[in-house]
User: Which sequence fits this backbone?
């Protein structure tokens, strides 16, 4: 079998395929909330991601079925199932990357902040586990409201003496995918050829796609640029309405989180060319203590804060206008940990 595998690898290389990581190398990735609407397709995509050695699926709901199902896919990642609070330690122990899509999603008429009361406590508990069992892991938070759950995670990690601001990320990649897709539609281009930086936060007006700094440039009359921006900001609600009570974006979110996770793993592995927008702790960029902006990732986490993209007048106004809302969401998260309800 070893000779056959070597021949197959040689053939794949001849065909120009990337050799995948050998089963003994790669990283351990834990998905917390793995049985959910996002968790399942995200786990599927991670099972297909090069560089994943172990895929640990954790949820308060059963995970055995999803794990058994995914384990039959012929990729190196070894899948394990962990259900219920007693299994959290095993899911997290020594993990390199922890992705958290646990929590309730929106229903029509709800804002992301309406989820705070339930999801704040879920994120706090899970991050307490991260601080205890894998304090050096990179942590990617999907659970909404991201503008508050990332500060919650940071406060929990600080209290445990395990806070590394270069390794804590709020996942805003879906805003980037939406901006790229919708801008490409307007420009008549392939979405994969379009790149729009999205800064700020991950809720309503705090989502600021900087269309004027897109590559290739998105040059539109003011009214069309405003309409495009509004569509990007409301895109999550578009999905919530279409699902009519059955939840929010799950499949596109899974694709976004899988892209972000793959970027993290590539950076961990030494690729120095990885740039993603994410919502992180730093007042360097905007003056606010948390902000989403383009980052260069490196083996130890954030390697460089790239400068904010140049903005036109309307975009600068929007940046100023969002500050109050973002600041309030950050304070709400910090306060939740300082003065638990
Ligand atoms: P879902 O309800 O389908 O799945 C959530 C999963 O979390 C369930 O399997 C549930 O059992 C699990 N869960 C609940 N409490 C838990 C705990 N204490 N520990 C572990 N697992 C727990 O929800 P869905 O659609 O997957 O959304 C998850 C979250 O992602 C929501 O908060 C949603 O708002 C957010 N979201 C974030 C986006 C972003 O761009 N950052 C985009 C879309 C959704």
Assistant:
């Amino acid at each position: 079998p070893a000779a056959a595998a070597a021949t197959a690898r040689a053939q794949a290389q001849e065909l120009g395929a990337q050799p995948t990581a050998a089963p003994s190398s790669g990283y351990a990735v834990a998905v917390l909330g793995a049985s959910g609407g996002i968790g399942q397709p995200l786990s599927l995509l991670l099972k297909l991601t090069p560089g994943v050695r172990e895929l640990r699926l954790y949820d308060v709901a059963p995970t055995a079925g999803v794990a058994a199902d995914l384990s039959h896919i012929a990729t190196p990642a070894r899948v394990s199932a962990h259900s219920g609070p007693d299994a959290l330690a095993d899911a997290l122990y020594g993990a390199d990357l922890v992705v958290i899509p646990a929590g309730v999603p929106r229903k029509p008429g709800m804002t992301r902040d309406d989820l705070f009361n339930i999801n704040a406590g879920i994120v706090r508990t899970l991050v307490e586990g991260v601080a205890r069992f894998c304090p050096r892991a990179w942590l990617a938070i999907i659970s909404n409201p991201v503008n508050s759950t990332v500060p919650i995670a940071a406060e929990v990690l600080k209290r445990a003496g395990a806070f590394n601001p270069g390794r804590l990320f709020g996942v805003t990649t879906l805003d980037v995918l939406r901006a790229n897709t919708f801008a490409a539609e307007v420009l008549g281009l392939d979405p994969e050829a379009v790149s729009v930086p999205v800064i700020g936060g991950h809720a309503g007006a705090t989502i600021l796609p900087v269309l004027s700094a897109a590559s290739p440039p998105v040059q539109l009359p003011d009214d069309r640029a405003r309409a495009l921006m509004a569509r990007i900001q409301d895109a999550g609600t578009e999905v919530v309405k279409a699902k009519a009570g059955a939840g929010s974006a799950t499949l596109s979110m899974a694709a976004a989180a899988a892209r972000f996770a793959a970027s993290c793993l590539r950076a961990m592995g030494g690729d120095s060319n990885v740039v993603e927008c994410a919502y992180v702790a730093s007042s360097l960029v905007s003056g606010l203590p948390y902000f989403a902006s383009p980052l260069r990732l490196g083996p130890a986490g954030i390697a460089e804060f790239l400068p904010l993209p140049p903005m036109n007048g309307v975009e600068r106004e929007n940046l100023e206008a969002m500050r109050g809302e973002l600041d309030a969401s950050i304070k709400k998260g910090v306060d939740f940990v300082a003065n638990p309800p």
